[in-house]
Each structure stands twice: as C-alpha cells, then as structure tokens.
Amino acid sequence: MADHYYSKRPEAAHERRSLETVLRGRTYRFASDSGVFSKQGIDYGSRVLIEAMQLPVQASVLDVGCGYGPIGLTAATLVPEGHVTMIDINERAVQLAKENAERNGIKNVTIKQSDLFAEVKHEHFDVILTNPPIRAGKETVHAIFELAYEHLNESGALWVVIQKKQGAPSASAKIESLFGSVEEVTKDKGYRILKAKKNSGKCNRTIDLNLGL
C-alpha cells in the first residue's frame, strides 16, 4: 500500500513546518509534517466545517480523523466546559495533534491513535465531527457514519464536510438512511456541510453487523 495520510505509520521523510492561522477569531500555531493530511496548511473543507459547526459549551465532542488537530482543537476552545476526544489512524498525525494542543495551551482534549472507533468503542458523545478520509475509500467513509450513529448520545449531532465531486450525494443518502434525515447546513466552493441529529425513534438504520459495534 502506498504511503499516504491514512497509513498507520507513514514512512515519508520528515519535513516539518510551522503554520499560523486564525480560526473562529483565534490565532492558532500548528506544527505539520509530511505523511499527514493537508501538511502545507489548513484545507478549505476543514475551514468551512470549523466556521459552520455549532457546539454546546458543555459538549462531549469526538473528532474523527483529526489529522494534526485544527478541527478538534478549535472545537475544544468552543466547548470550554466540555471535552474533545480526537482520533486518527496515523500515528504521526496523532503526535502532531498532541504537540499542537500543548502549543496552543488547550487542555480539555484527549488524543488517541485509533483505527476507526476502536479506541473509543465504549464511549458516547454529544457531537461527532469529521472531515472523512476520502482516499481511504467509500466503505471506510460510510463505516464512519455508521459508527458515529452508534456512538452519539440521544439528540447528539453528526457534522460532516465533504466535496460534491468526492461523494457528497452518496454520503448524504447514507447519513439519511441511518439518521432518518440530514440537513445541508451550508456549501462553499463545492464543499457541503452535512448535519444529522440522532433520534432513535425516527431512524432507519442500515448497520453492518460485521463492523464489530
């Protein structure tokens, strides 16, 4: 398998860089490196999600596929009375995210290396955020949606950013099949922000029992 941002242990030679950017009115400093997603700067899709996401200040939040941390760390500053768990399969990304939490003085986070939801399988959350790893394939992306449903508290919300040309219509259809409905919160330059709220009394789930839920 080629070395890419969805590798557990990227083998690309290190090429660290420092980034500074403003997200939701706050300046953040991030360390990035080769072998992780969007190493040269915060990708546009993540920015659209960050600007759109609405989080209760006491929320328990999960960032799936956190990379080096822009979505999850911004979320942590928006939930000062809550907590954010950040997971990624890529060990290099996880180490960078931990470093970036320290760089920015963010304490209300837990960051773990995890293949899908393996390391949070007994946990539940009020909000799940994801810029899903499109290059990992449709099966993996849809598994994230299925597992998100199982790991949300009642009335919890899933927020997803995805490009129209990279599967937004099928992603929306999949999420609707799980949650019963899905809202397109906003769209910007081909990126769609999808939101679905869990209400088990109205859902039409199509969970694959082989996912080990």
Automatic annotation (TrEMBL):
It holds the Pfam family MTS. InterPro entries: RsmC/RlmG, SAM-dependent_MTases_sf, Small_mtfrase_dom. Transmembrane segments: none annotated. Its EC number is 2.1.1.172. It is an enzyme of class 2 (transferase). Residues 28-195 form the Methyltransferase small domain. Keywords: Methyltransferase, Transferase. It comes from the Bacteria. One of its GO terms (molecular function) is 16S rRNA (guanine(1207)-N(2))-methyltransferase activity. PANTHER family: RIBOSOMAL RNA SMALL SUBUNIT METHYLTRANSFERASE C. This is 16S rRNA (Guanine1207-N2)-methyltransferase. The lineage of its organism: Bacteria, Bacillati, Bacillota, Bacilli, Bacillales.
